[in-house]
């Protein structure tokens, strides 16, 4: 955070790939609603490389947070700046409009997830 805004950056091998900003503590959110959303289904694309750089594991994982205690939650205006990078082609995702941002602080437990889809099994068979 820098004064009145939250700043997030994503770098790949020393190259800035993305910068996101949003207003800090702009409009308070309902803590129970954030708790319900956080406890719902969450998804993660897990990609783990092998020692030769090829993909060793590529799975879509579903998990549900437990023991969620939301301490504070805010929404506000946000902006996103994406930069081209050959090895991190985030710029290829079609972001048409940034409608806002949310930041919140919680205590929670992240349990083990379940594999929804294993992409490498598709190529093995």
How are the SSEs placed, and which strands pair?
Blueprint: E1 5-12, E2 15-23, E3 27-28, H1 31-39, E4 42-49, E5 55-63, E6 66-76, E7 78-82, E8 101-109, E9 114-118, H2 119-124
Antiparallel strand pairs: 1-2, 2-7, 3-6, 4-5, 5-9, 6-8
Q: If you had to describe this structure to a student in words, what would you say it looks like?
A:
The chain is mostly beta strands and 125 residues long. The chain has a single domain, classed as Acetoacetate decarboxylase-like (Beta Barrel), CATH 2.40.400.10. The protein is built from two helices and nine strands. The strands form three sheets. Strands 1-2-7 form a three-stranded antiparallel sheet, with no helix packed on it. The longest helix is centred in the first third of the chain and has 9 residues, at 31-39. The protein is flat and about 50 Å long. The chain starts with a strand and ends with a helix.
Main sheet strand line-up: 1-2-7
SS content category: mainly beta
Helix content: 10-25%
CATH first level: Mainly Beta
**So how many helices?**
2
Estimate nothing, just give the exact number of structural domains.
1
The major sheet is characterized as:
3 strands, antiparallel
Distance between the termini: 48 Å
CATH topology: Acetoacetate decarboxylase-like
How many beta strands in the DSSP annotation?
9
**Assembly category:** single chain
Please state the average pLDDT score. 92
**Low confidence ranges:** none
Q: Which superfamily, in CATH terms, is the homologous superfamily?
A: Acetoacetate decarboxylase-like
Radius of gyration: 18 Å
């Amino acid at each position: 955070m820098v004064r009145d805004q939250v700043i997030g950056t994503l770098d790949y091998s020393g190259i800035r790939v993305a910068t996101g900003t949003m207003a800090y503590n702009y409009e308070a959110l309902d803590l129970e609603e954030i708790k319900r959303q956080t406890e719902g289904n969450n998804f993660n694309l897990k990609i783990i490389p092998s020692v030769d750089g090829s993909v060793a594991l590529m799975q879509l994982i579903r998990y549900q947070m437990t023991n969620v205690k939301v301490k504070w939650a805010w929404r506000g205006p946000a902006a996103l700046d994406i930069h081209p990078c050959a090895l991190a082609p985030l710029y290829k995702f079609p972001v048409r409009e940034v409608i806002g941002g949310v930041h919140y602080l919680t205590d929670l437990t992240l349990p083990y997830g379940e594999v929804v889809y294993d992409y490498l099994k598709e190529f093995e068979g």
